[in-house]
Predict the structure.
Amino acid sequence: MLITVCLSQTRTEPWVEGLRAALPEADVDAWEPGAPQADHAVVWAPPQAFIDEQANLRGLFNIGAGVDALLKLALPPAIRVVRLDDAGMSVQMAEYVCHALIRHFREFDFYEAEAREGRWAFRKPREREDFAVGVMGLGVLGERVARAVAQFEFPVNGWSRSPRAVEGLRCYAGEDEFDAFLSASRVLVNLLPLTESTRGILDRRNLSQLNRGEPGGYLINVARGAHLAEADLIPLLDSGQLAGATLDVFEVEPLPPDHPFWRHPKITVTPHGSARTMREASIAQIAGKIRAMERGEPVAGVVDLLRGY
Amino acid sequence: MLITVCLSQTRTEPWVEGLRAALPEADVDAWEPGAPQADHAVVWAPPQAFIDEQANLRGLFNIGAGVDALLKLALPPAIRVVRLDDAGMSVQMAEYVCHALIRHFREFDFYEAEAREGRWAFRKPREREDFAVGVMGLGVLGERVARAVAQFEFPVNGWSRSPRAVEGLRCYAGEDEFDAFLSASRVLVNLLPLTESTRGILDRRNLSQLNRGEPGGYLINVARGAHLAEADLIPLLDSGQLAGATLDVFEVEPLPPDHPFWRHPKITVTPHGSARTMREASIAQIAGKIRAMERGEPVAGVVDLLRGY
């Protein structure tokens, strides 16, 4: 069995070494043009040339949860695209989202600014019931984030393409229930996969539906930059319809130095680090999936190429 | 039945009105010198004169979780001092502690400072296993905080005066196990009651026991300012033994404008707001306890005056 590794923006060597150790029965090598035909590939945003050359691949294992970069490629129809299930990412997402949510709800930014001036400040505490959190996307990551938020006793709404029932969440599904979901939520957390039907879903029209009234809605985007219509955000913040946003992903990454998001007082920018791929856990998971596929067993995380996730 | 209300640093009127509504069978009034003898009192840090004048009190209901201010007074031995059980405070504590913990662990301070300069920065993620969290005090608040932290998959240690078993926590008890608890923890969260045996417990000797090695220990104090030997903290931070501290409580409050904690780069100061008393929930709880006491039923939260909590 031959496994090839093709990772952009990521050091390839530790993955090759880790996979060799985890799959001693396989030959594992870094891909380069003209390399021999492999049975499986471990990839992150590979070029089209890679797909075109590697015509025998049975499994394409993505080292992240989002496969949108893969689905931009022309893929042979029989290939199975497999994403990571969790591999240490969901707890990081839960941390990131809870930190942003609590920071906003409790106004810690305000208190820290006052403290820098040596001021013992006081604000009337906000009511938790006014800060319903809406989680878009109820996959492995979304469900974990929703459960973490619910633990802090915020009302939690969930929205997914097909109907889901998750304990402790008020669940909405499909386009028909999208507006009701938005207007019942003040803080919107995006964990959707990026597909043709979710691209640009965070636009002026939809963000304006968020629970009205003081202090406006709040956006936390931890999925993909292309979910957000970036040009719509600052007008919504400046008009007060949105109180703020915490963004980890952007249309262009790294976010260009002159991008207005960097210094807008109501936007918190982080450099696409809400959930990093944990190499060791991921290698163990991918090795297990490759073995299962070789034995003809079912494998979790196989992507529906039509649906897009 | 006559109930008197004596609150320092707190508006008395809404409490009087709320208690009147919750206990229509009682007469409720704000205390003033020379007021009639009441059966029960609802208090926050009342003066000794109040206790001396009100000789018939059966119950003294504190509108907070910590009763240290009450126990400084000379109290008649038969009086029952009752503290709030939770009344919306534990979820706020969990929020506050998780925010401070995640902010430190994930280095969000660093990322926000980089973002202000328009820099797309990267740091090697820290390992969760290196950030064991030690919770001192396993009462209603401490247990809730420990459970919230455990949800983010940090190793969690708990320390209490008498042995406790809490699922998901490694529990230590008493003086004999204190050093073992400290050296097994990197982040120390203080939720102890303030008593003669816990005053000054966060001193150089004890804080130096925290889990050594990069990046040093971290202190989160949400109990009482007098738990911390304030003069010991800055030398520990400056030597690198501690990486930082988030402090909500201080020896003198408000923290004086010239206090060095305000502007130390490794200290985050908040103005004693980690958990505010929620008036409505507290009034409902106190009303229920007064009724139970009147019926001769057991009441939760009665303070052991010798033990001090």
The longest strand of chain B covers residues 2-7. The radius of gyration of chain B is 21 Å. Chain B has two domains: 2-87+277-294, 89-269. The longest helix of chain B spans residues 89-105.
